TrEMBL record:
Gene3D superfamilies: 3.40.190.290, Winged helix-like DNA-binding domain superfamily/Winged helix DNA-binding domain. It holds the Pfam family HTH_1. CDD domains: PBP2_LTTR_substrate (cd05466). Belongs to the LysR transcriptional regulatory family. One of its GO terms (cellular component) is cytosol. One of its GO terms (molecular function) is DNA binding. It comes from Brevibacillus parabrevis. Transmembrane segments: none annotated. Residues 1-58 form the HTH lysR-type domain. This is HTH-type transcriptional regulator BsdA. InterPro entries: HTH-type_LysR_regulators (IPR050950), LysR_HTH_N (IPR000847), LysR_subst-bd (IPR005119), WH-like_DNA-bd_sf (IPR036388), WH_DNA-bd_sf (IPR036390). Keywords: DNA-binding, Transcription, Transcription regulation.
Length: 289
C-alpha cells in the first residue's frame, strides 16, 4: 500500500461513495473501485460497507482512515519543511476563522503579506466545531476563534478583551438610548450570536441566569453578517462583541452600550499542540505576539 492509495481511501471515507470520491480525485470510478478492492485484499479485512447509496466505514476502515490522515499529512509536512529549508518562506497558509472573530484577519494578512510576499492564502470560515475538525484534519494550520472555545488539544494566544453591545433596528424605540441594562434586554426578541453549547452563547445565557432573568431567544445564528441583516430587517435585536458592531455598522441599526454586566470576550489565535507547523504558520502566529 502506498501514499497514492491512502489518498484514494481518504477521499472514499470523506465522500462516502465511489462516485463523489472519483470526482474529487479527477479519475474514473472503476479504477478507484479496483484500488479499494486491492487494499481490502492486501489487508485481509473489509474496509467499507454499503448502506443504500452511501458507504460506511467499518471499524477497520475507520482505523485505516485515521492512520492514513496522519501518514499523508506527515508526508506533506515533511515535503513542505524540506522546500522551506531550500527556498525560504513560501507556499500556502491555510487559516480558519469564526464569524465573530473575522474583523482582525484582513489587517493581519495585509501586515504579513508585506513581510512575506511569496505566501498565498486559503481562508476557511466556520463555527468552533468546524474549526476543530479542520485543525484535527490539518485542513487549516491556524484558527482565530472567539473565547471561550471548546477546541481539543490546542495552544492559544488570547487577544485583547472587549465589551459587548446591543444592536437594534434604527426604528426601535430603544434606538436613541446610549445605554441599556442587561435585565431589560431579556424582554426583547433576541437573535443569539452563536449556537447552544458554543462558548459565546453559553457566556451570554449564564450572564442572564446570574441576573435572574431568562432571555427571549427567537433565533440562533453564528454568522454576524446575517445577524446584522436580520436586525436591520427588524427581526430582532442581538448582543455582539463591540468589534463585530464596529465592522458592520449601517444606517439601519444602532449600537447601545450594556449596563449592569461585566461580561467581556476576546478572540484568540489557536493551533494544534505538538504538531509540526510550516514556517509560514509560525511567522503568522508571531505577528499576534
Amino acid at each position: 500500500m502506498d501514499i497514492r492509495q491512502l489518498r484514494y481511501f481518504i477521499a472514499i471515507a470523506e465522500e462516502g461513495q465511489i462516485t463523489g470520491a472519483a470526482k474529487r480525485l479527477n479519475m474514473a470510478q472503476p479504477p478507484l473501485s479496483q484500488q479499494l478492492k486491492q487494499m481490502e485484499d492486501e489487508l485481509g479485512v473489509v474496509l467499507v460497507e454499503r448502506s443504500g447509496k452511501r458507504m460506511e466505514l467499518t471499524e477497520a476502515g475507520l482505523t485505516l482512515y485515521r492512520q492514513a490522515l496522519n501518514i499523508v499529512h506527515q508526508m506533506e509536512e515533511a515535503l513542505s519543511e524540506v522546500k522551506e529549508t531550500g527556498e525560504g518562506i513560501r507556499g500556502t497558509l491555510s487559516i480558519g476563522v469564526s464569524a465573530l472573530s473575522a474583523y482582525r484577519l484582513p489587517g493581519q494578512i495585509r501586515l504579513f503579506q508585506q513581510k512575506y510576499p511569496l505566501i498565498t492564502y486559503k481562508v476557511w470560515k466556520g463555527d468552533t466545531q468546524l474549526l476543530n475538525q479542520w485543525l484535527e484534519r490539518r485542513t487549516i494550520e491556524v484558527a482565530i476563534v472567539r473565547l471561550p472555545h471548546s477546541l481539543n488539544n490546542c495552544t492559544m494566544i488570547p487577544l485583547e478583551e472587549e465589551a459587548f453591545v446591543l444592536i437594534v433596528p434604527a426604528d426601535s424605540p430603544y434606538a436613541d438610548r446610549s445605554e441599556i441594562h442587561m435585565r431589560e434586554i431579556a424582554q426583547l426578541p433576541l437573535i443569539m450570536p452563536s449556537l447552544p453549547g458554543l462558548g459565546i452563547y453559553d457566556l451570554i445565557v449564564k450572564e442572564f441566569s446570574r441576573l435572574g432573568v431568562e432571555p427571549h431567544v427567537i433565533c440562533e445564528c453564528p454568522d454576524i453578517s446575517l445577524i446584522v441583516s436580520m436586525v436591520a430587517a427588524s427581526v430582532g435585536s442581538s448582543i455582539v462583541p463591540i468589534s463585530a458592531w464596529e465592522t458592520h455598522q449601517s444606517e439601519q441599526i444602532r449600537g447601545i452600550r450594556l449596563a449592569g454586566t461585566s461580561i467581556y470576550s476576546s478572540a484568540a489565535v489557536v493551533w494544534q499542540s505538538g504538531r509540526h507547523l510550516s514556517k509560514a504558520a509560525k511567522r503568522f502566529i508571531e505577528t499576534f505576539s
